Amino acid sequence: MLARMHSIRKSSRVLKVMSLVMATFLFDACSSMGVSTKNAPLKAGFNVKKVVLKNGLTVLVAPNPKLPIVSYYTLFDVGGRDEGPGTTGATHFLEHMMFKGAKKYGPGEFDSQLERSGGVTNAYTTNDMTVYYQNIPVEFLEKMIDMEADRLQNLLLEPVSFESERQVIFEERKMRYENSPDGLIFLALMKKVFAGTPYGNSVIGEESDLKALTRDQMMVFFKNFYVPNNAIVAIAGDVDPDKVIKMIEEKYGSIPMKTDLAELKKSSSSSEVFKSQAEFGKEYKYYATNPIPKFVMAFQGERLGVRKAYVMDLLAMILGNGGSSYLTQKYVKSDHPMLSEISLANFNLIHSGVFYFAGELMEGKSVEEVKTQIQNDFKQMCDEAIDKRALQKAKNQILASGYNQLKTNAGVASTIVRNEKWHGDYNYGLKEMEMYNSISENEVQIACREVLEESKSIFISTWDKYPKEVVTKTVEKK
Question: Burial of 149 by CB count in 10 Å (0-12 exposed, 13-18 middle, 19+ buried)?
Fold first, then answer.
């Protein structure tokens, strides 16, 4: 069988910090790569043909004739945020079931057809979206369109595979959370920072919900959200856009749209629903299997797309990206290191966000010692770390990330489908780059002070010496 691992991804600017929706490196009219400069006209963009079918399906086709291969991405505007009490994990469970057979291509057929073609497939679920993707030879594209259209309208949710996949998801949850200190600490971060909101739920699902979810509940979820007017298809590769769009119209065009989709999604798009009840200034200690303590300091972040979110991207890059970054030099590579590793992230979701600093202690260091030192260092960190050189380096790193993202058909398809979904514009990366370039040193320093010096954090640590019950205490700002 085709090797595939379903994945839970943290959406937007997580871990790598920089956005992966950059369109700074552009396709010209011949679909060849070119690098924009400060003097390049910003009216340029991707060579993409976009159509919206009568049933609401958005289709993006980016031709690139360099190799006879194609990347095919399908994004559904549904994620963990759309789940309610008792149905956490439904989106991710459904992601698994989408590979388990439909009417025309039954159980095992989706994988076996792709395997015989030499293609690969996978999918991921986040708080805000679900994405399916394939990399295939160009001659398999027509069959791929037929297979995708089949499972969009005729998913079986066959009872035997439904129950077997439930067990697979339980094992995945154990691997990602219970048996992973890093996964456990991130789950705890989400629950505390986004308390009382859908973002505080586990994308994989709470164990009690996973046990109770029924096939009928899943079918309702499927019929509500897996509809053409809730999906975007992006195809990049050696294709003729007109021919591709004609094939998609033939296979997808008869699938009915959901007329009450907007009404259905009101509960997952209301700003009131995402007002967090987080208690910043608290500290939590969790038992985990790591023999050396790990920690995360989480601060209030920004939602996707606002200017301050871009400023905080640059702040995260300056402070924590790479071996020469300020925090790595100060805490990991100094003569008297406190930490063996660090990571810094600005995580932007559609309705909210979190800025966090995570690390693992050096052996012999205590959590309290490290926390106190870091809090004291915040007082001068913003002035010491941020200067013109550091800011320009961060902007250059974002440019490099954009270039690397667009080297492949998969990177292009992923970029344009995310831009279209998040911003309603597959070329939005041009505006993002203008935004990054307009941010000043002073602006980053102000954001740094607001986030690190003036606000309280939620501090979470894990260690195998902690008791099994969660230890909580209030932490005063130093």
Answer: buried
Buried b or exposed e, range 421-460, using 16+ CB within 10 angstroms: bbbeebbbbbebbebbeebebebbbebbbbbbeeeebbbb
Give 406 or 224, the one with higher predicted confidence: 224
Dihedral sign of CA atoms 163, 169, 174, 175 in order:
positive
- Output phi, psi for 90, to 5 deg: -65, -40
pLDDT band (50, 70, 90) for residue 18: very low
pLDDT in the model for residue 476: 56
Sign, CA dihedral 375-377-379-382, equals: negative
Does the pLDDT at position 1 exceed 50?
Answer: no
Q: Is 87 helix (H, G, I), strand (E, B) or coil?
A: coil
Distance (Å) of CA 207 to CA 31, 113, 194, 211, 281: 47, 33, 19, 6, 29
> Tokens 């943290």 label which residue?
10
Tens digits of per-residue pLDDT, 342-365? 999 999 999 999 999 999 999 999
Task: Indicate whether 221 pLDDT > 60.
Answer: yes
**Per-residue pLDDT averaged across 227-252, rounded?**
98
C-alpha to C-alpha distance for 53 and 255, rounded to whole angstroms: 10
Model confidence band, residue 188 (pLDDT cutoffs 50, 70, 90): very high
Residues sharing a CB contact under 8 Å with residue 410, sequence separation 6 or more, in sequence order: 71, 73, 133, 135, 236
d(CA 128, CA 403) in angstroms, rounded, equals: 25
For 198-224, b where at least 16 C-beta lie within 10 A, e where not — what string? bbbbbbbbbbebbeebeeeebeebbeb
Residue 301: name the closest of 262, 353, 228 by CA: 353
Cα–Cα distance, 60 to 44 (Å, whole number): 17
**CB-based contacts of 357, cutoff 8 Å, min separation 6:** 296, 297, 319, 320, 327, 342, 343, 344, 374
Would you say residue 31 has pLDDT above 50?
no
Give the angle 190-191-197 at the CA atoms, nearest 5°.
Answer: 95
Buried-exposed string 283-301: b where 16+ CB fall within 10 A, e elsewhere: bbbbbbebebbbbbbbbbb
Convert the pLDDT of each residue in 283-326 to its tens digit: 999 999 999 999 999 999 999 999 999 999 999 999 999 899 99
Q: Dihedral, CA atoms, 432, 433, 437, 442, nearest 10 degrees?
A: 30
Domains recognised in the chain with CATH numbers? 7-269 (3.30.830.10), 273-474 (3.30.830.10)
Whole-number mean pLDDT of the chain?
89
Distance CA 434, CA 428 (A): 10
Q: Do 427 and 50 form a contact (C-beta atoms < 8 A)?
A: no
Residue 372 region by backbone torsions, left for phi larger than 0, else alpha for psi between -120 and 50, else beta: alpha
